[in-house]
Amino acid sequence: QAKKLGRGRCVVFDVRMRTRVQRYLHLEQDLRHAVARKQLWVAYQPIVDLHTHAIAAVEGLLRWRHPVYGTISPTEFIPLAEETDLIKEIGLHALHSAIRDLAAYRTRRRLDLQVKANLSARQLDDPHLLAAVRAALHETDLPAAALCLEITESTLMQEPAAAREVLNGLRQMGVKLAIDDFGTGYSSLAQLHDLPLNTLKIDRSFIAGLGGSSDTETLIASIVALGHALDLTVVAEGIETAEQLDTIQRLGCDHGQGFYFGKPVPIDELLETSSVGVGVQE
Ligand code: C2E
Ligand code: MG
Ligand code: MG
Ligand code: MG
């Protein structure tokens, strides 16, 4: 009996494994053509100024519309792209789309919005990165200060020296820089102080942990203090409830981002879905 059961389980496991491996192989294969086939697009999520309640920025988040599997999350396909040089093409495509979308949106709606875009580790050693960013800003007339590039804390700490060089180049261009998913890596104060950053984004695991132990509040408060000591704008990611928003505001975060304010949506849906006012350009 046990033997039978065991074998049955084994078959189920096999089928699941095979499906997963097949999906992986298909996605890996199809990702190579995703840019050319125009299947990659950028969704935008509002980032709200917690003092004025206006949208201060939007973050561009890549989406893959796959003909068979439907919409695929970047948490699945970005790691796939990062295994090869494909991340450079895909990353630049996302960056260029975000710059182009925001430039058009700002003109149409007369809004002074900043756009944030994510950079992956392997883009930091792409020799074309700086020139590509400069060309995209020039082509669209987007002011450099309206672009903020996000790099995760763990990426920054992988190659701190190389990262600093690229970041300094971007900084000289006038582009703003953020450290993303902060609190999950192991950066030291000295390293943080050394990087030309403008913004610190607290990883959403901290916000998700609110309401559990009171230690989480203490942790967030000390990250906010650290950020402010370094003169950085502090953003809380992953705000989903009014209670979390209350706490985050009490703890002194400057900006907030999360499903409570709005999910990532196509650029044209941005104003309709967000429940907050918007700052208008002079
Ligand atoms: P991230 O840069 O930390 O982006 C925030 C992620 O949190 C997004 O997931 C967003 O949809 C999600 N999020 C925002 N608010 C909430 C909330 O209230 N609750 C929950 N549960 N989640 C929330 P998404 O879009 O799946 O992206 C995942 C990650 O993929 C990003 O994390 C980023 O690291 C990476 N990524 C996305 N687009 C790009 C890109 O163009 N280039 C690169 N290199 N990475 C990208
Ligand atoms: Mg990000
Ligand atoms: Mg993040
Ligand atoms: Mg993340």
From TrEMBL:
Protein name per Swiss-Prot or TrEMBL: Diguanylate cyclase (GGDEF)-like protein/PAS domain S-box-containing protein
Full-protein positions shown: 639 to 920 of 920
Organism taxonomic ancestry: Bacteria, Bacillati, Actinomycetota, Actinomycetes, Pseudonocardiales
Originating species: Saccharopolyspora phatthalungensis
Residue span(s) of domain EAL: 24-278
GO biological process, one term: regulation of DNA-templated transcription
